[in-house]
Amino acid sequence: MIKIAIDAMGGDYAPRETIKGVNMAIEMFDDIQLIVFGDEKEIRKYLVENERVSVVNTLQKIDMGVKNAIAEVRNNKETSMVLAFRAVKDGSAQGLVTAGPTQAIIAAAHLYLKRIKGMARVALCPSLPNIGGKERLFLDVGANIDLRSEHIVQFADFASIYAKETMKIEKPLVGLLNIGTEPGKGRELEKEVFELLKNDKNINFYGNVESKEIFQSECDIYVTDGFTGNMVLKTIEGVTKSIGNLLKDEISKSFSNKLGYLLMKNVFVNFKKTMSADEIGGANVLGVQGVVIKAHGSSTAYAFSQAISQARRTVQADVIAKMEKLIDSSGKNE
Q1: Which residues in 242-258 are b (16+ Cβ under 10 Å) and which e?
Q2: Virtual CA dihedral for 95, 61, 123, 230, nearest 10 degrees?
Q3: CA pair distance 123, 170, nearest whole angstrom
Q4: In the chain, what percentage of residues exceed pLDDT 90?
Q5: Facing residues of 292 across strands?
Q6: Using CA atoms, how far apart are residues 109 and 283, in angstroms rounded to an integer?
Q7: CA diameter of the chain
Q8: Please, are residues 24 and 51 in contact by the beta-carbon 8 Å criterion?
């Protein structure tokens, strides 16, 4: 049985949507056991009783608008998020899912789980929208603002193992996000990363990829620094939302447009589903000694259930142990 800790109080719509997501996940998978941390009285309003779900009561939580997330994690050890991390640390759970604030999650991951020995940084790694039937990993998207070249290469190593073990891609293709496709493009950082990736025997390196090709190239993984990655990811989210609003406005302008919408309704529905963050579930926090999934702060029940599914899949694949083995065998360290 795979045991996963759940921070029921993290996110904009907690605990309603997180607990409804718990209910959905329990129905989907018969090999998971969920330990839910949060306000038991509120949780019970939405929880469908199941012998594979237990509740640990705590009235403390980390708010989404917390000003000093690191201090909150350090000083308030009975919050639902910290208790979930402690469950992974003490071995009562193999992974956790939370929709809480990103910086608090990164802080708790460092304080309670620690980085994998030899792993110099951690990364936030979501999947991009599945366009053309292809799932792609993208990291780092915000855990680190400044990175050295060797950090990004470690991310590529880790993501390659993750893609191979959880996505069943035999030789994941890694692309370096850059301002041009030719070798020698970019800042000194990208130039150094390019050379290191090219010579890393554990990585199937494609080369540089411009952001305009992010949904078109054959790559399975894109790597970059956290500042660039976060900007690109939020641009994708913003453009998608703007296109949706534009289509709504155009459809409402005339009868013929409304008729056209009815004729193409399935196309619009599929577009919305493909680009929805709900389908992605969450971002893996790669690099720490435990499976951590950061669900979107505004997760719906379905999105949160997908994040639980992601945690289950990552635990099953034993990704962390395989990354530890790679670091040991390669002699890579901080």
Answers
A1: eeeeeeeeebeeeeeee
A2: 140
A3: 22
A4: 56
A5: 96
A6: 14
A7: 67
A8: no
Between CA 97 and CA 99, with CA 98 as vertex, the angle to 5 degrees is 135
User: In 3-state terms, what secondary structure has residue 285?
Assistant: strand
pLDDT (tens digit, 9 = 90+) per residue, 168-194? 898 999 999 999 999 989 899 999 999
- The pair phi, psi for residue 238, each rounded to 5°, is -70, -45
- Work out whether strand 282-286 and strand 291-295 pair parallel, antiparallel, or are unpaired: antiparallel
Residue 270 has pLDDT above 70, yes or no: no
- Read off the pLDDT band of 237 (50, 70, 90): confident
pLDDT at 271: 62
- Spell out the domains of the chain, with CATH numbers in brackets: 1-115+287-318 (3.40.718.10), 120-285 (3.40.718.10)
Contact 243, 98 (CB under 8 A): no
Q: Is the dihedral of CA 193, 199, 202, 204 positive or negative?
A: positive
DSSP 186: S
Q: Which residue has the tokens 């900007």?
A: 231
Q: Which two tokens stand for residue 45?
A: 């309003």
CA-based radius of gyration for the chain:
20
The SS3 of residue 177 is: strand
